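Page 37, continued from 36.
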């Protein structure tokens, strides 16, 4: 469920060197990238991360252990956020974070097999950094501004995940319509039952609403407008509505919808993950409430 390997919001922070070596090859499909803030004890609370960067000569030494790197098994480089050494170590001392472009074949950088998600796709890795040297030219943006850069990318990425989920949900609605047209019950298609018609109507309506708000937010993003609240809202609504739609699809398919190898069963597992990935639904609600309180 990692989706395409996107450059997204980080493009505006990159130097000419970083564009030429990393991001333009990424956009052209010549290189692959992965990104994650997550550590074992620092999921939604990303500021608790323990990966640390120490300044040394014309670069930095990174040490830490990152998990759930989507795209890690086939990535060439990673966007890694680390806490600057000497910050956030005392009570009341605010930690500072920096973002780095790290070649995954660098000495001191090791890619390990990650956990297999419930979708069954082997798309995740751990990245272990052991005194890994990163040249100063690979510092993304300004030192100490890494968390802002990372969260800006996550905001954009929340929106960019939504079309993937909408496509899978649209496929589930089509499969369910086909099933109810072809499945005979008491001498008539299942779709002729009013209870089924109402379920189908609700599924299609929720899909239309989720798609419409996503398109509106993406149009605003293309126009250069701020879409922080909209990204939270779209991620929340698309994830929750897609789950409801897939749950109904499984119910309508009956035993077949519970059977491994059936496409609906696979889509249900894949869509269920989206209520957690890129921030849980609860995190999205926190973000919406915070922005509403701040702006009003």
């Amino acid at each position: 469920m990692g989706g395409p390997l996107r450059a997204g919001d980080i493009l505006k922070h990159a130097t000419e060197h970083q564009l030429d070596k990393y991001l333009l090859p990424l956009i052209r499909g010549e290189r692959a990238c992965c990104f994650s803030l997550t550590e074992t004890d620092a999921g939604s609370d990303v500021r608790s991360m323990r990966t640390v960067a120490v300044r040394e000569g014309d670069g930095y030494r990174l040490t830490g252990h990152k998990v759930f790197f989507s795209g890690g098994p086939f990535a060439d480089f990673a966007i890694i956020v680390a806490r600057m050494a000497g910050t956030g170590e005392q009570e009341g001392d605010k930690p500072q974070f920096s973002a780095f472009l790290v070649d995954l074949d660098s000495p001191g950088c090791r890619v390990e097999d990650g956990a297999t998600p419930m979708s069954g796709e082997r798309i995740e890795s751990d990245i272990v950094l052991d005194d890994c040297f990163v040249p100063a030219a690979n510092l993304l943006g300004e030192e100490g501004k890494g968390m802002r850069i990372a969260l800006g990318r996550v905001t954009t990425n929340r929106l960019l995940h939504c079309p993937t989920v909408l496509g899978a949900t649209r496929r589930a609605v089509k499969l369910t319509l086909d099933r109810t047209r072809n499945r005979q019950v008491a001498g008539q298609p299942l779709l002729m039952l009013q209870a089924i018609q109402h379920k189908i109507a609700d599924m299609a309506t929720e899909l239309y609403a989720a798609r419409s708000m996503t398109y509106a937010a993406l149009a605003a993003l293309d126009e250069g407008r701020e879409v922080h609240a909209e990204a939270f809202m779209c991620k929340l609504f698309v994830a929750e509505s897609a789950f409801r739609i897939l749950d109904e699809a499984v119910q309508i398919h009956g035993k077949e919808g519970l059977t491994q190898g059936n496409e609906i069963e696979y889509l249900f597992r894949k869509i269920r993950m989206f209520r957690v990935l890129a921030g849980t639904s609860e995190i999205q609600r926190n973000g919406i409430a915070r922005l509403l309180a701040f702006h009003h």
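Strands lie at 33-36, 52-56, 59-70, 77-84, 97-103, 109-113, 124-135, 139-140, 184-185, 188-189. Flag for discussion at group meeting. Residues 68 and 124 are 5 Å apart (CA to CA).
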